[in-house]
Amino acid sequence: MEKIGLKKYEYYEEINQGIKRHIPKNKMVLDIGGGFGALAEEFQKKNNIVWNIDSSKFAIQKSKRRNIKSYVADITKRASLPKEILNQKFDIIVFADILEHVYDPFSVLKLFEDFLAENGKVFISVPNIATWTVRLKLLLGNFTYADTGTLDRTHIRFFTEKTLRKMIRVAGYEIEEYDITPNFIRPFVPLIKKSYKKRNELRHNPRAIIDSPAYIFYLKYLYPIERLATKIWPSLFAFQFVLILKRNDKK
């Protein structure tokens, strides 16, 4: 549990299914802003060696308990990076829902390019600001921030599919694979979190949602249907854009 201002924020882990679907085996992986290490742990399950850096000391403490190489650092400043990172080259660098939290995502992408192996890949996931729920709110004159979701109060930058593709191109990368996560059941997540919070007032469990039978059922039976429906019109129905990048050698 962390504090946002004077407010206590109970964190519930989520696994980015768009990235999880593309996890390879036997790679050196750097997870940028990996938080508690939930996604890094999924990489570990496929025999990858994973390093996690995050600005939150609390999150890094939790990440270390998962036996992940974890370091506190400001990802926007090279001087802040631990020497263990500076001496490494990584097969995969992951930016899972982190670029929207920094003022200059382009510069962050360029900074970590130095640590990418010759044939390395960059995994990116960002929220879709043009998703149907945000469009509807704007139509009604509402642009209210929240504790989670597309309008998370900690989001600084916003992306459409078009602006994301432009930034990637200018940064010197090309898209090798394109994926999405859906946004049909996702708008109910804040209500689900409130429900779990009431049921677990005495003991907060960050994995309460993702380990629940209801969530496991959703992933197995409902999520695939949502994903197929989203592909009809991804710029409208996607919650996140998930891209796997490689260097553009033609530039």
Protein architecture, described:
- With 251 residues, this protein is of the alpha/beta class.
- It has a domain at 18-182 and 238-246: Rossmann fold, CATH 3.40.50.150.
- It has 10 helices and 9 strands.
- The radius of gyration is 18 Å and the shape is globular.
Q: Which characteristics define this entry?
A:
7-stranded mixed beta sheet, 251 residues, alpha/beta, disordered N terminus, two-stranded antiparallel ribbon, Rossmann fold, 10 helices
Summarize the entry for a quick read.
With 251 residues, this protein is an alpha/beta fold. Helices cover 33% and strands 24% of the residues.
Biggest sheet statistics: 7 strands, mixed
Q: Given the C-alpha coordinates, what overall shape results?
A: globular
In the CATH hierarchy, what is the architecture of the domain at 18-182 and 238-246 at level 2? Answer: 3-Layer(aba) Sandwich
Number of strand segments: 9
**Terminal residue distance:** 45 Å
Average pLDDT, to the nearest integer?
91
